[in-house]
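Design job #97: recover the sequence.
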């Protein structure tokens, strides 16, 4: 039986990233072998776990046993006083402690014997690419490659820490500081600059193999729904900046395909209190979308 080798790219999306688990299951059933993965935010979590060797059934089990409310751990300051959240925003730049993400990912990777990027490198190259935004330097980072700009050896950096950085939703989670000698940078959710890095394997030359990207259906704009107030207008401006068409940066489009995952839009990216039924629904959305894509397009490459 022929096994088709591909690279994967996952969009950001918070808890909506559960859809990627179902999508990955459908891909494996179609006998695709994943060589490299890249992602932003929730996409970085799935990418890291896939490269670490987690199979679809393991990821499904992981979803079932994980208490996602653990990602709503407030800072000590946010728990205090009536204005605790406001004070936490001012002092810590976020309400919830992003360290909970790093601890969770660290434990999951450790089960596969993986800690740093060195543990997954092949010929000194990482098959995992994680997108992070350095808001201090106003620069997008591709980790581990760009760690050299901070005088950090890419191979020594914790993968869990890189994932944490990519998942740090501004103001929601506390940002991580990256130090460069006496200077430091605030590093946050890569989706601020590239929520769907479909171009990441197409930077220097033609991709080594086909690239399949998974993108969650964008929500309908508020102004298109008839809302004309300044808040709706502002939100649509922000969404337009974040959800730009990043396929424009891809040169070899024939080797790059995007699978769009639809859902009912009732679940928000930060809804970490979902029940089992809702989580299964999201996973099924990814599975169905992937199967439909291949059935409709007869894609083999």
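Job complete. Output follows.
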């Amino acid at each position: 039986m022929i096994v088709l080798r591909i690279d994967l790219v996952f969009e950001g999306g918070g808890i909506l990233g559960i859809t990627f688990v179902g999508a990955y299951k459908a891909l494996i059933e179609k006998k695709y072998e994943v060589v490299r993965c890249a992602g932003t935010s929730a996409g970085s979590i799935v990418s890291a776990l896939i490269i670490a060797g987690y199979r679809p059934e393991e990821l499904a089990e992981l979803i079932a046993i994980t208490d996602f409310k653990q990602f709503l751990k407030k800072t000590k300051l946010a728990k205090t006083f009536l204005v605790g959240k406001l004070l936490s925003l001012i002092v810590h730049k976020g309400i919830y402690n992003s360290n909970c993400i790093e601890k969770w990912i660290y434990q999951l990777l450790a089960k596969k014997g993986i800690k740093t990027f060195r543990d997954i490198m092949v010929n000194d190259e990482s098959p995992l690419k994680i997108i992070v935004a350095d808001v201090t330097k106003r620069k997008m980072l591709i980790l581990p490659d760009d760690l050299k700009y901070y005088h950090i050896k890419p191979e020594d950096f914790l993968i869990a820490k890189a994932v944490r950085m990519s998942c740090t939703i501004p103001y929601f989670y506390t940002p991580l500081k990256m130090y460069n000698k006496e200077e430091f940078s605030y590093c946050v959710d890569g989706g601020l600059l590239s929520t769907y890095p479909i171009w990441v394997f197409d930077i220097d030359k033609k991709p080594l193999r086909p690239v399949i990207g998974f993108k969650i259906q964008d929500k309908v704009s508020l102004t298109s729904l008839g809302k004309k107030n300044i808040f709706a207008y502002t939100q649509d401006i922000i969404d337009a900046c974040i959800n730009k068409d990043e396929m424009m940066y891809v040169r070899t489009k024939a080797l790059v395909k995007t699978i769009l995952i639809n859902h009912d839009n009732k679940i928000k990216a930060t809804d970490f209190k979902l029940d089992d039924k809702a989580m299964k629904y999201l996973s099924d959305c990814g599975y169905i979308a992937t199967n439909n894509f291949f059935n409709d397009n007869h894609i083999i490459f």
